[in-house]
Every structure is written in structure tokens, then in C-alpha cells.
Amino acid sequence: MRPESDRLGVLTDHHCHGLVTTDLERDGFEALMNEAPGASPLGTSLFDSMLGLAIRRHCAPLLDLEPLAPADAYLARRRELGATEVNRRFLTASGIGTFLVDTGLDGPGGTALTTPAELAGLADGDAYEVVRLERVVEEVLREETADVPGAVEDRLRTSGAIAAKSIAAYRVGLDLPAEKPGPDALVAALRDADPQRVAERAVSGWLAHTALELGLPLQIHTGYGDPDLDLLAADPLHLTPFLRGTQDLGVPVLMLHTYPFHRHAAYLAQVFDHAFMDLGLAVHNTGALSAGPIRETLELVPFGSLLFSTDAYGLAEHYLLGALLFRRGFARMVDDLLADGDLGEDDAAHLAGMVARDNAARVYGL
Amino acid sequence: MRPESDRLGVLTDHHCHGLVTTDLERDGFEALMNEAPGASPLGTSLFDSMLGLAIRRHCAPLLDLEPLAPADAYLARRRELGATEVNRRFLTASGIGTFLVDTGLDGPGGTALTTPAELAGLADGDAYEVVRLERVVEEVLREETADVPGAVEDRLRTSGAIAAKSIAAYRVGLDLPAEKPGPDALVAALRDADPQRVAERAVSGWLAHTALELGLPLQIHTGYGDPDLDLLAADPLHLTPFLRGTQDLGVPVLMLHTYPFHRHAAYLAQVFDHAFMDLGLAVHNTGALSAGPIRETLELVPFGSLLFSTDAYGLAEHYLLGALLFRRGFARMVDDLLADGDLGEDDAAHLAGMVARDNAARVYGL
Amino acid sequence: MRPESDRLGVLTDHHCHGLVTTDLERDGFEALMNEAPGASPLGTSLFDSMLGLAIRRHCAPLLDLEPLAPADAYLARRRELGATEVNRRFLTASGIGTFLVDTGLDGPGGTALTTPAELAGLADGDAYEVVRLERVVEEVLREETADVPGAVEDRLRTSGAIAAKSIAAYRVGLDLPAEKPGPDALVAALRDADPQRVAERAVSGWLAHTALELGLPLQIHTGYGDPDLDLLAADPLHLTPFLRGTQDLGVPVLMLHTYPFHRHAAYLAQVFDHAFMDLGLAVHNTGALSAGPIRETLELVPFGSLLFSTDAYGLAEHYLLGALLFRRGFARMVDDLLADGDLGEDDAAHLAGMVARDNAARVYGL
Fold first, then answer.
1. Quick check: pTM over 0.95?
2. What tens digit of pLDDT does each residue of A4-55 get?
3. Which chain A residue's Cα is nearest to B300?
4. Domains (ranges, CATH) in chain B?
5. From C269, which residue of chain B is nearest by alpha-carbon distance?
6. What is the pLDDT along chain A (366 residues), one digit of tens a residue?
7. Interface pTM, i.e. ipTM
8. B260: cis peptide before it, omega within 30°?
9. B200 CB contacts (<8 Å, ≥6 apart)?
10. What span, in angstroms and rounded, lies between the C-alpha atoms of B336 and B325?
């Protein structure tokens, strides 16, 4: 199931999650579709959205249904085939060859999601682990270790992860300190911290600086997310002092999602050497309209600073749609530019390769 | 005067105002056109705008003139026909069947505008009243009632209004308290309040919470408005704590206008069950370019959470253009999606019906 | 080198800078291309961007190369021709007849840029000087004058400049005081000020109010700029109190650049009589995608309140591209509106003339 025009080829998904391995009823499926907790008693089905249309249009044929099959027929067929077969079909069709998997988020109700190795197996590709910083410090705190900072650093050093992930946006907002918090401030903040949910600015800042000092590329949630978020505090522009303070380290900082602040992130990715961005999560959620944000992003971001990701979580549809719609939006923009003489075929191939794979290979040293 | 393609049919305008019933000279007309107080001594005519072009293009033929007739000819013909005839022609042509009228705003210089019943009569439709919260509390304060909160609640309970309207954005910004202010905080704030213009956060918060507790859907001004506004404080994202604090009540909160923060509102309308939005005021002001904001809005908002409104005020042109341009922008987007196979004719009819009428019927219990 | 469709004719560039007069190696050229300090060790060439494509596509033919010639070939040919010939070719081709030049910014490493008279000579046009407020006060402070405010006012009065320029966005953010700071506050702030880099809110506010009181139109940097900037503090909406406080003076305030907050600036330019805006810097940086921001801007800004500028600095490519891409984006929008019947040829000519020249002539009294 390739889109009409594809210029990207095999993709590296630099930020994603595992999949649910059980079969889902309509409620369970809708709860995983987008960032709403589920269908609203005041509203209508979440299928009445650009994402819902995209699932019915692009995913149904992969389950041997007509395009735009009704939601109930789609979900019945999905259960009939079983989660493993469905996951395999969508991952194979996505054309993603490499997965960087954030393993710090469990499935619904604390259930297990597919591991990076299982994901790679389903797609016949490669997978790497991204370690979630907040999860590490919370585990260490719950173990009542004497030297919490030392233990966190040890785990990051030996985790085998290819990158670190920060969800500071959900905990304290993105106004992270430009300088690494000193030992006193850190100890005081750790003393106040809830080991179930660390939400101290000094801890979030220390984690982010520490990851970079250890040479781990730092993925940071910005923009669009679930209702736990204060979206204004997740505007990537709040990272400006942090980016200014960390640019001399020369370790990449990757702003995830970024929508609806993708133009803000594109600005940062232009003016800071070590700042990179993606549109994950936003692409599949905006469905057939995702070409708009893709185009807006490319106004300012250097092609060398944009990465592909799906931010898929739970549903394999996210992988298929994230890839397919990004291919479509990117190809349409390139086709328009070619038609106007604004770039040549060689340029198109060069720039597409950067965005699809080469930037990720360079940034993460794959 | 229907646009080239209409998929919406009869519309419910869930937020609008009455019309001026006197004939207008050019100054008076320009003062009512958009959110500027009038033409600028440093600038040029307000007809030199997308709204001005839209009036000359779409409204002139309804007054028996050629499309794009000059502004002076247009205004002369408007006076010749007289306000009542002009109002009747535009309202009939708008295809609006139901009006929810905010009666809390007078005409220029304190003059009377058409009542909801008069509006309904001009359009041969139905009308309901929306009660403006600030006006109620200011009236009660001016009467020096002993129990102000009790009197406000009584009036809201017996007002017969179908919804309440808050202009907190103009008075204190949208950072309303997540919890209903307690009696002490309320009494203190009411003691400080100017009965001509209440601008206390505790009062605005108490009014908004009270309306919801009484089961009244709450319309809130957000985004675009006149120069009294601090537009940054009118970003609907400031409502996040209020929405989080009121979601369990299950009573709708309707974010009005939302432009240029329509993507922010669409996010809230996706993740909060009881949050809804419109693009009123922005559609007619952006004229032929309104298709852009409509498309951006639909990226994330569930079709079940978007309503139609004009926010028409004073000039019947606002009704005609708000309806016509929303029809046009919506139809063009749907036509594009159909052409690409991204939805089917059945989907188009279903989603259009929701936005045009069905969401309003469900939300307000019409 | 005219774009395919031009509706603007001879342009007045109401905000720009001088050009480098020496020949540039690749590093020196890339350092001047956009708002990044140079190519990133983690990234790729800055030519891998919409601006880079636009240079290769539109500028190469003016140096007798094929469109989309490789960057190295382009730069070699540029050096071969020499900076003076290159500057002459691009300026002539830009179709700009009048330049308002901000002379407050030196070239790389403190080198001299072309003077306004030299620019005018290269283009066979006219040039006027815009005086940078921060530079004036810093010069006066370094001279240890007794009466600093008096000396600043004298220099502004006798500068011969046609307008003043504020970079408050870089120093204190755009939340300038609504009222002119009094003598005590000013004296205290001047005492604290660093004569190399004044960054006191009271000083920035006093300078802006003083320029307007002297009748000098005030250009203010807003939005997009280099990494010294806190972009959130450069949102033009922070100017709301300042605009409210200065509207009775009747002297124009011109919001420069504005991207990615161009819709915010367009709102201010609609509701405040004395507020004007441009898209300089953003147009050439967003290359072939600049049509998007131009269209978004025109949603709300009155045609009488939008001006053309390039914000060219150092490289003559900025003049060529700023003009060519603005012509192209404006013409495409107008052509679309004409095709839909949304305006007529007379309207198109009238509105284009305003944006290209007439607004600048009126605002600056040219």
C-alpha cells in the first residue's frame, strides 16, 4: 500500500513506541486512536475526524476491505485477523526499516507493548532503544539508593540506549535551565520529588543536561499531546535558553511532534546547530490535511535538521499512516516545486534521502 | 445567492448578535465592518481588505448591483433600499434557519439592535437567547441587591436563555480558575468590582462555573476581537485548567472565534470531551482567504466538536458572508478530499450535517 | 529577471541594510545567508534549505549560470564577477526604486557595508536613512555626556533620518511601557546601562516614545531573527499596550518581519490606526514556500497597512529574492482571486500599488 508518489524510500522512524498485542473492541481502539481519552458522551465517534477517515481509507484495504469501509466492519475484520497479523501487515507496508523505540511508556492499564526486538521482527528491520529519563530517576528513587545522581548516571551510561527521551513538557514545562543545576539544588529537588511522578524543574533540567554530557542525543516532547499537558508550556520556544546553554556540547537535541508550534521549532532548528525536529504524531492525526503542516515546517527548517518519526503508540495503524501520509505530503510538495522549476530531480533525491534516513544516521551515529 | 458548491444546507448559527435598523453613511458602515473602530487617518478605506472585497463581490448582487460594484455605489443603494429590506434580503439568502443570539451587546452609541424574535422573523427561522454573564452581574450590582450571588443565580435560572456567554477574555483574560471561587473570595471580589465594568478574575471565574453548574452551555469569547483585547490573554489554551476542572460536569464549553489560535482550540476540542469551537467572525473578515483557517481547523478538531457561527453584529452582510464563505471553504475542502478518495459522498453528507446543524442540536438540546 | 507574473511594479523597500563589498568564500557566504551563524558541524550545508534552493534557482541565471547550478559553481562565479558587479546585477534586477536603509548594523567583524547613497547608485534609485535608536543612545553614553536624554533627542532631531528603528525585541522584549518613562526612571535606567549594549526596559521604552513624539515613524523588529533573540518575547502582540498608549500621537509604528507571528501583526494592523507591518526577511528565507505566509498575512491586514521590505543584509541575493518572491507570492494570490471573481483588474492594480509603493509614500511622507 504505497502512496501515489513516494520520494522517501526506506524510512528511519526516530521516535516511536511498542504495539498492543491483544485484540481491541471499539472502546479500546478509540481510546488509543488520538490524544483524547476516548469518545465523548457529548460528542460523536472519534472516527469522525481526519484520523478516522485516514484509517478507513488507507488501512482498510490492508485488511482486505474496501477503502472507506465502515468503522465497525473495520474493527470486526481487525479482530478476525488478530493483532499479530494486523501488526505485521501494517508494519511491513509502512516501509520503515529502522525503529528508535521509546520504551518508557506502558500499554493501557500497565500492560506490556511489543519490545523493540519484536517490532523489528514484525517489520523485518532494525530497532534501537531510547531510554526515558523520568522513568530512570523514578526507578532509582523507589529503590531508595543513597547516591541517586550517581545511580542515574550509571544506568544511562550502561543502558545500551541510543538516545534519551525527556517528558519535561508534561512535568515542569519546557523552560529548562540553561545551566546544569548544581549538587545542592539537585539534592533538594530530589528530596521533594514524588518517586511515582517526578515534577521538579531542577531534576528535569539535570536529567536533560546529564544525558547530553554523556553524549546521548536528547529527544524532548514538545507540542501536541494528551490532556495532561499544558500545551502553552510545551511550546519549543521555551527551550531557547536551554539550547543556548547546551550548544557548545555538540550533542543533538531533537524536538518531537512540535505541532502546532512546528514553525517555532523550525526556527530553532535553523539557528541552533544542534537542534533538530520532527512532526511525529501530528502527521497521522491530521490525516489527509497533513500536507499543510509539512509544508509550513519546510519554510524555515534546513533539510538537514528535519527527521521522520511516527510517534506510533499501541496501534499499528499509526505506523502505516505516519509513514504513508508523510510520504504523500513530502512528495506533493516536492512535485509542486519540481513543476515550478524550484528544484531539480537530483536535489529532490538528495533532500528526500536526508529527511528519510540520512539525518537520523548522522545524528544518532547509526 | 448560493455559493458554487454547498454541502451544508440549512445552518444553525450558534453565536450571533442583532442588526442595526437605521440607514448608515459610509463612516457608520465602516465602523461596523471589522474590529477596527473605523477607517484610519493614516490608512485607507476599510474596503481595501479581504472583507471589503467580499462585501462588494458577494453582497452587491443581492442589492441588484453588479459584483464588485464600488463601495460608494454599494452604500448608496443600501440606503436607497433601506435597512429593513437589506436585512431581510441578506438573512434570507444566508440560509440560516436557527439563531442563538447574544443579547448582551447594544448597537453603536447604545442604540437598540434587532431582537432575537425580529431576526427570526427576517429569516423566517427560529431564534434563542444567549445571556451575557457580565451584563447580568453588572445589572445586579447596580441595583445594590443584598445577595448578589443569589440574585445572579436566580436570573440565570429564570432567564429562559439557552446558553450563557462569557467575555472574560476582555476583562481578565482566559486563565480562569479551575475551581469555583469560594464565597469569601467572591464577596471580596464583588466588593471591589466596578458595576459598569466588572473585571475581577474571581467574579469571571465564579460566573463561568455557575453557568455550567446550572446546566447552561457556556460560550466563551476567545481569539480575535476589538482593540480592547489583549489577544495573547485570549488564547484558548489559557482555558486548559478551567476545562480540566469542569470536564466532570458534562456541560459544554464553546470556544468562540478562536482565530488566530484555531489550531489551539482544535487541540482542546479533541482532548476535552466537553470542549467545542467555531470560527465565527474570522470567516467573514478573512473573505476569500477563509478557506485556509477552515482547513487548518479541521486538521485536529473532531467533526463532532466544530460548530457554525457568524458572530454577525450590526451589519446583515456579516450573516450573508459568514454563511456563504463557510459553505464555500467547507465545500472546497470536502471536494478536494473526495477527489483524492479521502472520503466518500456518504461521509461528506454525514460530516457536513454535524457541522451545519447536528452538533448544535445535540450540544444545546434544540 | 522578472517572475512569471508581476503585479507590483517598482518597489519601495522600507527596511533594508547595506551590502558586503568584498568577495566571499563559502563559509563567509553561508554565515550571511540566513539567521544561523553558519553551517552546523552536526548538520549539512545551509544551501540545503528553501533559501538555498531559491538562490540556486533564481540568482544563478543572473550570474550567467544555468538555474539550479551547484552551490560551489555559483560561489566561484560570484567571486569571478566580483562583489561590485554582482551587487549591481542583483539590485538592478530587483526592481526596487527606493531604499530605506537601517544604518545601525555593521558588516561581519565590524567591516563597513555599502552606504545608502552607494545602494541607491547600484540600483539607480533613491535612498533614505533610518536611524537605529539603540546605537544613538549607546554612542551618547560612551561620550559621557552630562544630559544624555537631551543629547539623544538632539541627534534624532538633526539626524536627517526618515524614520527610527528599535531593536527592543533583542534587548528587553516587546512589552514596552504604554506611557513614556518619567525622568527619574529614565535616569536610573541610564545609570545601570552598559554603553556597549543597552538593555533596560525604561530606556527602550523612552527611545520608542521619544521617536514618535519627534514625529519619526518607528520601525520595530518583531518575530524572526538570529539566536540572540527570545522569539516568544518578540511576538508583536506584546506591543499591544504600547500601541494603545501611542495611538493618539498619530505617528506610524511599523512592525518588521513579524513571521511566524504575521497573523498576530495583521490583527494589530487592522485594529490600530497607526500600526503597519511587513514580511521582510521571512520572504526570502522561506523561498518558494513564501506564498503561504503572504496569503496568511492578507487574511486580516488591510491592504493599506502592509508594506514591502526585504530586510536584505550583506548579500545582494536578499534584495533579488525578497523582491522576486514577494512579487510571485502576491501575484499568485491575486491571480487566484481574479480567477474566482473575488476581485477585478482595477482592484488588483489599486491594491498592488498600495503595497508596492503607495503605503510607504504615505507613511513616510516620501
1. yes
2. 679 999 999 999 999 999 999 999 999 999 888 877 778 778 999 999 999 9
3. A286
4. 11-23+82-364 (3.20.20.140), 24-81 (no CATH)
5. B36
6. 344 679 999 999 999 999 999 999 999 999 999 888 877 778 778 999 999 999 999 999 999 999 999 999 999 999 999 999 999 999 999 999 999 999 999 998 889 999 999 999 999 999 999 999 999 999 999 998 899 999 999 999 999 999 999 999 999 999 999 999 999 999 999 999 999 999 999 999 999 999 999 999 999 999 999 889 999 999 999 999 999 999 999 999 999 999 999 999 999 999 999 999 999 999 999 999 999 999 999 999 999 999 999 999 999 999 999 999 999 999 999 999 999 999 999 999 999 999 999 999 999 999
7. 0.97
8. yes
9. B172, B189, B190, B192, B193
10. 16
Instruction: Tell me how far apart the alpha carbons of residues C28 and C69 are, in angstroms, rounded to a whole number.
Output: 19
Q: Going by C-beta distance under 8 Å and a sequence separation of 6 or more, which residues neighbour residue C243? A: C253, C268, C272, C274, C275
The closest alpha carbon to B113, from B18, B255, B10, belongs to: B18
When CB atoms are compared, the residue of C295, C303, C337 closest to B49 is C303
| Helix (H/G/I), strand (E/B), else coil: B111 | coil
Burial class of residue A84, CB neighbours in 10 A (0-12, 13-18, 19+): middle
DSSP assignment of C188-233: HHHHH-BTTB---HHHHHHHHHHHHHTT--EEEEES---TTS-GGG
Indicate the residue of B42, B226, B288 with minimum beta-carbon distance to C273. B42
Sheet strands side by side (includes C218-222)? C11-16, C96-102, C126-132, C163-166, C218-222, C253-257, C275-277
Q: What angle (nearest 5°) sits at the alpha carbon of residue A48, between those of residues A42 and A49? A: 110
Phi/psi for B13 (5° steps) reads -95, 105
Peptide bond between residue A260 and the one before it cis (omega within 30 degrees of 0): yes
Residue with cell 467545542: B276
Query: Measured between CA atoms, how close is C238 to chain B, in angstroms?
Result: 8
Omega cis (within 30) before C260? yes
Q: Which residues contact C90 (CB under 8 A, 6 or more apart)?
A: C59, C62, C316, C317, C319, C320
CA distance A105 to A118: 16
What is the DSSP secondary-structure string of B263-314? Answer: HHHHHHHHH-TTEEE--TTHHHHHGGGTHHHHHHHHTTS-GGGB-------B
Q: Nearest-CA distance from A182 to chain B in Å?
A: 32
**Phi/psi of residue A198, nearest 5 degrees:** -70, 125
CA-nearest residue to A307 within chain C is: C43
Listed residue (A29, A17, A18) closest to A77, CA to CA: A29
